[in-house]
Amino acid sequence: MAAALALGLAACGGSSSGKSGTGSTGSSSKNINTQPGNDINPQPREKIADGGTLRWPEAGISDQLNYNEVDGTDGSVSDIMAAVLEEPFYADAKGIPRNNTNLVASYTVTQSPQQVVTLEINPKAVWQDGTPVSEADFEAQWKALNGTNQAFQVSTTVGYSLIQSIKPGKSDKEVVITFSKPYSEWQGLFSPMYPAATNSDPKKFVADFKDAIPTSDGPFKLGSIDQTAKTLTLVRNDKWWGDPPKLDKIIFMSIDLDAQTDALANNEVDLQYGIGSHVSYYARVKNLPNVTVHKAAGPVWANLTFNGASGSPLSDVLVRNALTIGINRKQIDTALVGPLGVSTDPLNNHVLLTNQQGYQDNSGDLGKQDAARAKQLLDQAGWTSTDGGKTRTKNGKPLNLRFVINATSDSNKQLAEIVQNQLAAIGVQITIVPVPGDDYYTKYVNVGDFDIAQVVFGGNAYPLSTAQPEFANPTTGSDGTLNIQQNYGRIGDPAIDTLFTEALSSLDRTKAESYANQADAAIWKLDTVVPLFQRPQIVATNTKLANYGAPGVQDTIYENLGFVSGS
């Protein structure tokens, strides 16, 4: 069997049954992003009580639960659907993918004359209604996500566009995937995999999982959705063929970020994550009784995203460049993550993180604050000042940009205020626009109703596949709809797409890293996304919660979640 290239984290942790470090009290002052190991309270199944309810808060729960649909690529959807839909491969604590035998009993890979992956589906694998999971499910998802049918509004085509064909082998339980050119991160495809019925029709692709989860092939299935209480409850799937879930149910609860710490303190929820950029949350949770704070290197990074859509002041790259060198990222990072014991050196790569092999600084002159040069660029772009640099206008219109923030996030507000003060020095006015947390992405970021926004990109064991849709060149469908995938800056470059394709098709690690860094250098020149910091993964949990904490890139095995018995 040929080994595929893995550009995973060099040292990262996870949240399932893999080996890991022990729980943390949050007292360490080390730079988490350079520390090995993970932090999850790993426990064997026999030490976990049968039954119980896990109360899981989310800042908001998306109404689109198809993660592959353009409006469904949300952290809450990922958390929920990972308990409901199986993935062919799971990443371990080192980011190395291994086949999930509940779905893929075995597999083979050949590379000559073409890369061909053959998956043997577990004969017991069935959908909730008893329909066998089959080759047809893989084939339908490929056809929906490969980009050939613009009627499907997809969040990514990465990898799927490189598949030449998917056909049944000796039976419909054998999947033969032939690639048109080598693809190094193929194990990340079909994660998650939705049923053929949903992926066979563009309308069903949008509608089937809108405020609904009609089927499951995982350990849990939908119990109920309560729109009033803003909860989504999962219960055990009685058609599940793997190890029985330890939990009776998981209740996902939409709770504003600022209210989650109170909920944890009042024993209303069992965990709180997203602490990694909230100093005030961290200061509180580390002292709560019966709560363990877990820390690990995080595969997530925060950035400032500029809306470069036509007609916006930020459609001019000179203005974007001026903003980028007008801010002081070191000052931002020191304020937002310095108190958490992590590096305050700005992240200088859009594709690879500081603890990933191949990371290098490609920022050039854009990586350093230069207020004088920023002012020159604005003058060059036609935004001039007549009041000594306090304000700028062009054709009688003031340069006043809307920085849209999540009203429930204190760190969003702090970031916006720092940026507002820094850019005032070059004559750029910033109006801070707080919006409800539930609406932040769906009604503002996703649809481009902002000038500046903080966006957090999540990572996993497949950094190239993860980054490509974040910078993909937007395309216009036959109905005139712009498909941005996850490129919220709304500007792309075909050359960047080509570099990602080359990186993903290279099975030589050194060459893949070279292409990745060339892509990053081009992204810097495009300048719609300004990296701020690599977010540490800090998660507070009920001390009794087993096999969950700071998950890093390791996949969570939901049937192994539960509470330690007799504790």
TrEMBL record:
UniProt-listed Gene3D superfamilies: Dipeptide-binding Protein, Domain 1, Dipeptide-binding Protein, Domain 3, Periplasmic binding protein-like II
PANTHER family: MONOACYL PHOSPHATIDYLINOSITOL TETRAMANNOSIDE-BINDING PROTEIN LPQW-RELATED, PERIPLASMIC BINDING COMPONENT OF ABC TRANSPORTER
GO biological process: peptide transport
Record InterPro entries: Peptide/Ni-bd (IPR030678), SBP_5 (IPR039424), SBP_5_dom (IPR000914)
Signal peptide start-end: none
Name of the featured protein: Extracellular solute-binding protein family 5
An annotated Gene Ontology molecular function: peptide transmembrane transporter activity
Pfam families hit by this protein: SBP_bac_5
Start-end of Low complexity biased regions: 1-19
One GO term describing the cellular component: periplasmic space
Sequence ranges assigned to domain Solute-binding protein family in this UniProt record: 109-471
